[in-house]
Amino acid sequence: MIRGIGVDIVDLARFERQVLRTPGLIPRLFTEAERGLPVHSLAARFAAKEALIKALGDSAGTSWQEMDVVTDAHGNPGFVLAGATAAAVTARGIDTVHLTMTHDAGVACAFVVTEGTA
């Protein structure tokens, strides 16, 4: 059963300006493993985290540092959730989180669907 759906779009130029203007955003919003990625990949990961929060219904119990956007051996994106964020997802009855991301034509977009039983 679908528990939530979330989508987010990020303007790449605006995101890059924000990151350059406020360098502290990178360590606040991204895990250690994400920080060295190109700006378009960071923007897509930011959109993914925002889309997850929207799919959850709110940000209660979530932390940017506990949402790691990863790719599998085939390049498919997904989340590795930890700590209070993983607990918040479980408490909402969610056992599967689906993620897709893209970046093109000056924007990054992410779409999340959460599923749970009952």
From TrEMBL:
<feature type="binding site">
    <location>
        <position position="8"/>
    </location>
    <ligand>
        <name>Mg(2+)</name>
    </ligand>
</feature>
<feature type="binding site">
    <location>
        <position position="50"/>
    </location>
    <ligand>
        <name>Mg(2+)</name>
    </ligand>
</feature>
<dbReference type="InterPro" id="IPR008278">
    <property type="entry name" value="4-PPantetheinyl_Trfase_dom"/>
</dbReference>
<keyword id="KW-0808">Transferase</keyword>
<dbReference type="Pfam" id="PF01648">
    <property type="entry name" value="ACPS"/>
</dbReference>
<keyword id="KW-0443">Lipid metabolism</keyword>
<dbReference type="GO" id="GO:0008897">
    <property type="term" value="F:holo-[acyl-carrier-protein] synthase activity"/>
</dbReference>
<keyword id="KW-0963">Cytoplasm</keyword>
<comment type="function">
    <text>Transfers the 4'-phosphopantetheine moiety from coenzyme A to a Ser of acyl-carrier-protein.</text>
</comment>
<comment type="similarity">
    <text>Belongs to the P-Pant transferase superfamily. AcpS family.</text>
</comment>
<feature type="domain" description="4'-phosphopantetheinyl transferase">
    <location>
        <begin position="4"/>
        <end position="86"/>
    </location>
</feature>
<protein>
    <recommendedName>
        <fullName>Holo-[acyl-carrier-protein] synthase</fullName>
        <ecNumber>2.7.8.7</ecNumber>
    </recommendedName>
</protein>
<dbReference type="InterPro" id="IPR002582">
    <property type="entry name" value="ACPS"/>
</dbReference>
<dbReference type="GO" id="GO:0005737">
    <property type="term" value="C:cytoplasm"/>
</dbReference>
<dbReference type="InterPro" id="IPR004568">
    <property type="entry name" value="Ppantetheine-prot_Trfase_dom"/>
</dbReference>
<keyword id="KW-0460">Magnesium</keyword>
<keyword id="KW-0275">Fatty acid biosynthesis</keyword>
<dbReference type="GO" id="GO:0006633">
    <property type="term" value="P:fatty acid biosynthetic process"/>
</dbReference>
<keyword id="KW-0479">Metal-binding</keyword>
<dbReference type="GO" id="GO:0000287">
    <property type="term" value="F:magnesium ion binding"/>
</dbReference>
<dbReference type="InterPro" id="IPR037143">
    <property type="entry name" value="4-PPantetheinyl_Trfase_dom_sf"/>
</dbReference>
<keyword id="KW-0276">Fatty acid metabolism</keyword>
<keyword id="KW-0444">Lipid biosynthesis</keyword>
